[in-house]
């Protein structure tokens, strides 16, 4: 027959003899200890009022660029066909992604060949079509090297 804690405590010897089990002492201490522990902290929400609560990372921008690489290649194909370019330019385009979730701003900062404005415009348009979530932290500025595809 199982005894309650009150029954065990009331049946203790009076003269200081220790005859009841230490297991009960640990059980009582464990029950009392569990009641005093606070619950674990809740995970902070990922978005508050439409704003992501962590900064945008370079790796996220790189993944987005990888997803549109075929569109950048198509820019080269279209311009090469329309202008008959023998040696299309390689570029470095500076991409600025603001934290408000606005479209990024792209600016050509380096071109290996001059006079290929239609190609530049196409690349800039494709980069500015990317979308990123509003996020905490400062704007992210990344220089994107774009090499002309091999024929």
Question: Care to describe what's here?
Answer:
Strand 3 and strand 4 form a beta hairpin. The longest helix has 15 residues, at 22-36. This protein has helices spanning 5-10, 22-36, 58-67, 69-83, 117-128; strands spanning 47-48, 51-52, 91-97, 105-111, 140-146. The strands form two sheets. Strands 4-3-5 form a three-stranded antiparallel sheet, with helices on one face. The chain starts with a helix and ends in a 5-residue tail after the last strand. The chain is of the alpha+beta class. Helix content is 38%, strand content 17%.
What's the short story on this structure?
The protein is of the alpha+beta class and 151 residues long.
Layout of secondary structure:
Blueprint: H1 5-10, H2 22-36, E1 47-48, E2 51-52, H3 58-67, H4 69-83, E3 91-97, E4 105-111, H5 117-128, E5 140-146
Antiparallel strand pairs: 1-2, 3-4, 3-5
Helix pairs in contact: 4-5
Q: What key attributes describe this structure?
A:
about 150 residues, 5 helices, three-stranded antiparallel sheet, elongated, alpha+beta, single chain, two-stranded antiparallel sheet
